[in-house]
Design a protein that fits this description.
The protein has 17 helices and 14 strands. The chain is α+β, with helices and mostly antiparallel strands and about 525 residues long. Strands 1, 2, 3, 4, 5, 11 and 12 form a seven-stranded antiparallel beta sheet that branches. A three-stranded antiparallel beta sheet has the order 6-8-7, with no helix packed on it. It has a two-stranded antiparallel sheet with strand order 9-10. The radius of gyration is 23 Å and the shape is globular. Pathway: Sulfur metabolism; glutathione biosynthesis; glutathione from L-cysteine and L-glutamate: step 1/2. Keywords: ATP-binding, Glutathione biosynthesis, Ligase, Nucleotide-binding.
Length: about 525
């Protein structure tokens, strides 16, 4: 354990400081496809009205495709409370899906033709239309099939008091907002160094339906007539088969400050890209993408982790970061675990809290493009062959086995888990480490290995396994209906969101062309992060 980590843990374990570890916030965004219950095929129906308005509902919305639901929990001090709320959302949704259900995998099942996949719709207001146009642009740039991939996003923050306590003890200079932001950037640097471990431990997409590739060339192996895979893969979702974009290569190089990150994103939103210029922004008088640049908006940048600030109505992501700094980080590389009804378990969440706290408190040397290439190579090797016996990763100037490095990291995180248990009570964080240590000792215990094992009972068919697992989980939720009071609360929230969307549509002024031009103009030199 490093000297700095030892000192910070000792500082935060002092009686007058220990409570602040329980004052950070956790939240989950869970994506999941609506599919037909009888065959698992993608739903082509609009978003159910009973679930409310996707534009204004705080907990139930859609991501890229109309059928790709996204459930957003409140940010709460204990992740167990967020998961309890997520469970209630699932139960309410299943009670209002009729003959549909939620798909239990990250990678989609049976999809219709590209043209037939509906893009998410948010109504006729200007803000709703710009969300829809953004998704039209995504469809043109990457295809609609990619918009049907689902994941788990984990939102994590430490109490602002943690950064103040550490900064004061270490004599760090700067205002509170600057120190907090740069501390989160340091966390992100460490995350990139160690995130391959999350792919090994939690990757759950080692196989895909053959139809997903729509005839494109690939290097996968055949598992059955309808299924492709790699024998040692952990997460094909996070490989080059998933949501990737060659136009973004080198877009945001490894960064050491928030300012560097914001400048890179701001430039990308303004940098023209000839293939997108050839498409244009309008076709037959309709907007088909927000602009013809490398990125339409900042969120189009695909990252395994993002620095985040809560965005106010109509505000852009970089504007929020410029104005108020980093408030929390969003981990975006987690697969949906098909064996967990919610896609993620409490045990996994406890480990993420340990892992991210470790990344926050551990030494975080400045990075470089050379190190960034090594980090990416380690990550890519793990997603494609993480369970391969003897797999070697690059640690500094040396080669080391994935298992050995992983066990070293688990050992280094043990004092962090002990401190979190001291604050929280019990042994949940240390117990989560023990589970992950067992997975490093035995790759057959990983979710990716368990998925392949479970598929054998379904003729090694990804589609048949996904259908059976989704049906089983859907029945579990329907067997546990909400109370009348809970149902009434969710129904009221849905009605309120519909009313709010209607009000926005009725009260807006001006035309959409002017609205979108104003939105695009806010990526110019007026942003504080521009050079």
């Amino acid at each position: 354990m490093s000297k700095l980590l030892t000192e910070r843990l000792a500082l935060l374990s002092q009686p007058e400081h220990l409570h602040v570890l329980g004052e950070g916030l956790r939240g989950i965004e869970r994506e999941t496809l609506r599919v037909r219950q009888d065959d698992g095929a993608l739903s082509l129906r609009p978003h159910p009205v009973a679930l409310g308005a996707t534009l204004t509902h705080p907990e139930i919305t859609t991501d890229y495709a109309e059928a790709l639901l996204e459930f957003i929990t409140p940010a709460l001090p204990d992740i167990s409370a967020a998961l309890e709320r997520l469970d209630q959302v699932h139960r309410f949704v299943h009670a209002n899906l009729g003959e549909e259900m939620l798909w239990s995998q990250s990678m989609p099942g049976e999809l219709p033709s590209e043209e037939a996949i509906p893009i998410a719709w948010y109504g006729t207001s200007h803000i709703g239309m710009i969300k829809h146009v953004y998704r039209r642009g995504l469809a043109l740039r990457y295809g609609k099939t990619m918009q049907c991939i689902a994941g788990i996003h984990y939102n994590f923050s430490l109490s602002p008091e943690v950064w103040k306590i550490i900064s004061k003890a270490e004599g760090r200079r700067g205002d509170a907002q600057y120190l907090q932001s740069e501390s989160y950037v340091a966390l992100i640097r460490n995350f990139h160094r160690f995130s391959w471990l999350l792919m090994y431990l939690f990757g759950a997409s080692p196989a895909i339906p053959r139809s997903f590739l729509r005839g494109a060339p690939h290097t996968l192996e055949t598992l059955s007539d309808d299924t492709l895979y790699l024998p040692y893969a952990t997460s094909l979702r996070m490989s080059d088969l998933g949501y990737q974009n060659n136009a973004q290569d080198g877009l945001v190089p490894p960064y050491n400050t928030l300012l560097e990150y914001m400048r890179s994103l701001s430039k990308a939103v303004r940098k023209p890209y000839p293939p997108y210029e050839a498409i244009g922004t309008q076709k037959n008088g309709e907007w088909v993408q927000i602009n013809t640049n490398v990125l339409q908006i900042e969120n189009e940048f695909y990252a395994t982790i993002r620095p985040k600030q809560v965005i106010r109505s109509g505000e852009r992501a970089v504007e929020a970061l410029c104005a108020r700094g980093v408030q929390y980080i969003e981990v975006r590389c987690m697969d949906v675990n098909p064996f967990d009804p919610l896609g993620i378990s409490l045990e996994t969440a406890r480990f993420l809290d340990v892992f991210l706290t470790y990344c926050a408190l551990q030494d975080s040397p400045l990075t470089s493009e050379a190190e960034g290439s090594i980090n990416q190579a380690n990550f890519s090797a793990t997603v494609r062959e993480g369970r391969r016996p003897g797999l070697q990763l690059q640690r500094g100037d040396a080669q080391v086995s994935l298992q050995a490095w992983g066990l070293d990291l688990i050992a280094a995180m043990e004092p962090v888990a002990a401190l979190l248990d001291q604050q929280h009570g019990g042994s949940a964080h240390r117990d989560s480490l023990a589970v992950q240590k067992a997975r490093l000792d035995n790759p057959d215990l990983t979710p990716s290995a368990q998925v392949l094992k479970a598929m054998t009972a379904h003729g090694n068919s990804y589609l048949r396994f996904g259908l059976a697992q989704s049906q089983q989980l859907a029945q579990q939720f329907r067997d546990r209906p909400l109370s009348a009071e809970q149902t009434q609360s969710f129904t009221a929230a849905a009605h309120k969101s519909l009313q709010e969307q209607s009000t926005i549509e009725q009260q807006q002024s001006g035309d959409f062309d002017s609205f979108i031009q104003d939105y695009r103009s806010r990526t110019s030199e007026q942003l504080c992060c521009d050079e």
